[in-house]
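Why does this matter for the project? Reviewers at the last site visit asked to see concrete outputs rather than summary tables. In response, this paragraph embeds two records directly. Each consists of the residue sequence and, immediately after it, the corresponding structure tokens. Nothing has been edited or filtered.
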Amino acid sequence: MRRGDLERTREEQWCQIRGYLLAYADHAPPRKVAVVGNAPLEPHEERVAEIDSADLVIRVNSLMLDDPGAPPTLGTACHAVVLSRATALTPWVLRDYRRRAYLVPQAGFVQYRPGDTIGLLLHADFWPPDLGAMPLPNAVVKARAVRALDPGARPGSLIPTTGTTAVFLAHEMFPDADLVVVGFSFLDDAEQTSWSHHSGGHTKVNWQHRLDLEARLLRSWIDDGSARALP
């Protein structure tokens, strides 16, 4: 395939992913997009109002939603989920999955160091057979996100977190929307080596994640007004 044809194919795939998200949004194009990470949060009514008023709410991995009667903390809206194959399931990850878009980053860009015991999950048995998830090809999404994080990065040298991938998609696909982000602990601590989850517990930060670069990118969007950080 010639380079021009390859680039055109990748652009078509990018547009297909955008169209898939639009199909699940409450309004197309979305006037407001919320991306919710999984860092522990305290109750906050105004935050929840901001999240649940978005036309497109994107959540990631081990997500949680507010149960009926619970203090307003995370909101209840969820139009799309960016879901890693290595996700630790919570009761909310696959709830009402037929009503949501699911985007699954392609496995790859993986380099194991001596002593690593992490296995690469090529198939997740816990997924429903009719999940209908759309893959996020590395060359279409991950490579773009890596260039935004570090234009000089060697291919495969870093992997964007699932949360930053979700924010990147929202920022680049819907530039005219009011983009709000919340639940990203690396904005306050880019040196952390483990994740604390709102659902409980801790997991190790993948050594190929560069939280300093991700924090810098998200802060640049917050500073230029193309994104807003919620409390």
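We now turn to the second protein, recorded in exactly the same manner.
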Amino acid sequence: MMVGGVRSRLVVSVIVLFLFPTVSADSAIELGEVVRLGEVDLGLEGATISPDGEIVIAHGADSSIFLIEANRPQAHSRLPWDDSEALLDADFHPGGQTAFIVGEGGVVLRFTRADSAVGSAGGELYFGQTELRAVSWNADGSWAYIGGEMGWIWRVRGLEGGGMEVHPIEGRGTSDVNGIACLASTNMCIVSTSVDGIGVIDADHELHWIGGTGYPWIDATCPSKGEDACVAISNDRNIAIVDIDVGDTSASDVSIVQLQDVDGQFNGIAGQSDGKSIVFVVPYSMIEHDLGLRLSFPWLENADAVSYDPAIAGERLVATWATSEYTGWALTGPGTIVAFSPVPDDRTGGILGIWMGVVIVGGAIGMILSLIVSSSPRLSRWLTMRVGSEEERKEARREQRRKDRR
């Protein structure tokens, strides 16, 4: 799919991370309060949080839709919608007042916040019986992109009085589109597919395939408010950092990282704070990815989840959402919501254990470790804030304020 100049401009660096805990092997966060959306397995597939961080829509089997208060999920309700299709993805419009929910059988539903109502957007008329697997709005909310099985991608938007305006995206692949994510400040989005790799949709709705062909990409997110970069994951523990070249989309870069010694498979990714994401893993565990540092860190070990509650640890994580930089809630397929928060410093020696030990194809270990530890002011500040003394942390904060004023 990549030929000529596109291939020559593509930079794909494959990094293998061997995980050596240098601070603690314990989890960085601990599980807390439990909320259950139902008494039976609900078969949920995911959830999306509103731009203001106040409400969450969870969705899944049998067209089940739940409206949840993000900070207090004890306040939740099932929204009435009588159908049988599984709802596979959802995304809020940047304005936060509506959301699209997509799923099997070409279904596209529209959630309206003002009256907490769900209605059909007429998806079957445009998409037939295509299984719709991903949806995401672009930065200014002018268009949403919907992806489905067999490589289908459309740009869509609602019309006054109901219905949709729909246009297929040209140059699509042939494998399932499993994830779409859009930058927060520029009308550019990435798509992740089962086989065809990773593509970038530019502001003119043109699709550019930029790399990662052959990897089973399953989800994507663009967690940074200011950096033109996104993150995609595959179910076989690969993380792709997609650096988008806004001026020349076809020159965008993909860096692929595989995490070793991770038990289980990646199941999804969600933004946690600016530039940081949570990868949820089956069996029940989580990994933090820091886009700015281009590094991954332990978040929740499965052993700690089992110690907390063996039954919950056996459930499939399908979504997380943040309530602060290090706190939030995790949702499972059966409908169990569990709070998470940082483990006290006196139990871990620091907020996060650090997984490093980096081997980069084509580079020497010593060079890379030197680069990471000695030559990165950002990483140096990060380490100081995580494991330094109180005085060292104060000095790091003062230094950051001085840099911000320049």
